[in-house]
């Protein structure tokens, strides 16, 4: 199944068949993944319209990052108890029960950074700092982290079926990013973020 040529197409019953918000391979200013970012966006009406000024400040550094930095630092020093205090403080701010994390590993800390700091321009620098960018973005078409995927929304048209009228999301490679991400080893020694080679390398 591939995405349609138009967004917001309707079926013969006049109801929406494909999503209006994308993804799409050629329409400009439309999501390439089927999702839009709400994080750090002004929730007030029409503030996303061009020419409208938002009063939401861009966050350069926030408490969540402080907790994550402290967690990683003291864990590296072998002070697991203190690291657990920091990571749980972070979780409690997000609504998790007190002391919900009882076992801590490097992988857990790294995943917490990935989730908490998503869309805040930390991922590249974290992977470089941990020296695993070449392993995560290895250029493999079968690499779950190297390939950029999209979820395409479709309404199920099956009269009499329990799923009729509901939406399904078909996972596909994002059309504008066919080549998987490939981090070149030499980029560990560069200061800028232009680190991907577009040629598919296995």
Fraction in helix: 10-25%
Q: Major beta sheet, specifics?
A: 2 strands, antiparallel
Chain-averaged pLDDT: 82
Q: Whole-Å distance between the termini?
A: 26 Å
Proportion of β residues? 5-15%
Care to describe what's here?
The chain is α+β, with helices and mostly antiparallel strands and 202 residues long. The chain is built from 5 helices and 2 strands; from the N terminus they run αααααββ. The chain has helices spanning 63-76, 80-93, 106-116, 123-129, 133-136; strands at residues 149-155, 167-173. The protein has a two-stranded antiparallel ribbon. The protein is globular and about 65 Å long. The relative contact order is 0.14. Residues 198-202 have low confidence and may be disordered.
């Amino acid at each position: 199944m591939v995405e349609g040529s138009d967004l917001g197409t309707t079926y013969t019953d006049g109801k929406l068949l494909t999503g209006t918000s994308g993804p799409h391979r050629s329409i400009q200013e439309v999501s390439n993944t089927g999702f839009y970012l709400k994080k750090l966006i002004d929730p007030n009406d029409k503030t996303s319209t061009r020419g409208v000024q938002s009063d939401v400040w861009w966050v350069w550094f926030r408490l969540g990052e402080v907790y994550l930095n402290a967690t990683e630092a003291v864990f590296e020093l072998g002070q697991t108890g203190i690291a657990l205090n920091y990571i749980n403080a972070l979780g409690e701010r997000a609504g998790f029960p007190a002391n919900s994390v009882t076992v801590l590993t490097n992988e857990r800390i790294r995943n917490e950074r990935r989730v908490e700091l998503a869309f805040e321009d930390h991922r590249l620098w974290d992977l470089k700092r941990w020296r695993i960018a070449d392993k995560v973005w290895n250029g493999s078409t079968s690499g779950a982290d190297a390939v950029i995927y999209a979820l395409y929304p479709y309404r199920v048209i099956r009269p009499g079926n329990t799923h009729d009228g509901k939406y399904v999301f078909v996972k596909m490679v994002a059309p504008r990013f066919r080549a998987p991400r490939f981090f070149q080893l030499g980029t560990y020694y560069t200061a800028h973020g232009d680190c991907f080679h577009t040629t598919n390398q296995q």
